[in-house]
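[job 0412] stage=complex_fold ligand=iron/sulfur cluster status=START
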Amino acid sequence: MQTNHIQNQKANDIIRKCVHCGFCLATCPTYQLLGDELDSPRGRIYLIKSSLENNHFSDESIKHLDRCLTCRSCETTCPSGVEYGHLIDIGREFVEQKRPLWQRVYRHSVRKLLTTPLLFNPIGFIAKHSSKQGKSITPSVGSKKVLLLGGCVQPVLAPNINHSVKNILAKLGYDAIETPQKQCCGAVDQHLSATQEALIKVKANIDSWLDFEVETIISSASGCGLMVKDYPSLFDQSDPYYQKAQAVSGKTQDIAEFLVDKDLNQLNLEKSNISYHEPCTLQHGQKLAGLVNSILQQLGYTPAPVKDSHLCCGSAGTYSIFQPKLSQELKINKLQHLQASNPQMIVTANIGCLMHLQKDTKIPVKHWIELLNG
Ligand code: SF4
Ligand code: SF4
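[job 0412] stage=complex_fold status=DONE, emitting structure tokens
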């Protein structure tokens, strides 16, 4: 756990790297939509800096920080290596204590709804996107074990994703053990500044996952994968969990990273004209831009280039709940670009983007991994 002093120090170290060049403004979705410097990465860095110095976050500052998607597009653009994602998390943690009571209650309720299976599962069942398709393949005796992050909302909303991952891995000689739904990665708590509750989940996950003694932990939701890879940043280096978090982070791979050097010729492919939406958590967070596209191309798909593919679709965790207007504008733009090539299907790599995009298009939206289990 990190104290306010450590958090302040960490924020200052990040802020000092910013040379105010403004390159990040051109690739920030909220700056593009609103044209206000305070809705840009540079403006928000300034707001966090002055608010921390004065120990005061005004309502105006909170508004501009809340509009940030945490898409980390600015990190990809920044020539100085400013770790904006970590900075906004620190800023938000301070902001949380200053929010009016109604906002805190609303945010708490949404967080509990999403992270408590007993509450979420009945709603998720009604909003379900897809069911398992085809039989489950039993891994052959002697298959190498890997751990599959089951996720908390994905198994309820789109169980066909993990089903597809397990089948594909079984065909390639791997036995994927799925973690139970209650083992949420902690991202929802962390992004809604419930740091203590996130840490309880993170520590329990670390202890449980290290017990499996597998070499690889696979994630099929790029948002969860990013959170798990980022676990070490939640601990001070003197904390005993820091080393364990590094061990878990080092073993974790997105399914695309795991498959990229495997022989995929034996898979049955569902060939169709597709358009690929690359989640921010994969391209800007995990820095794996282009990886899924290159696998799809090797498999004979020709996803058409998508205009502004670096921009967020507006899903961004709980952003679509708390900032519905901006989220909707981003989605409409994204769908326009994804549909420009008249695809039969849109594929992506994160359950949040998938559900968000599907709400406003009749074209089926799937996880790209489902194509490989056709
Ligand atoms: S994280 Fe995204 S929305 Fe937030 S400042 Fe950076 S580019 Fe803009
Ligand atoms: S965050 Fe990076 S790109 Fe943006 S103003 Fe600072 S140094 Fe320049």
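The beta strands are 144-149, 174-178, 217-219, 252-254, 274-276, 345-348, 365-367.
[job 0412] exit 0
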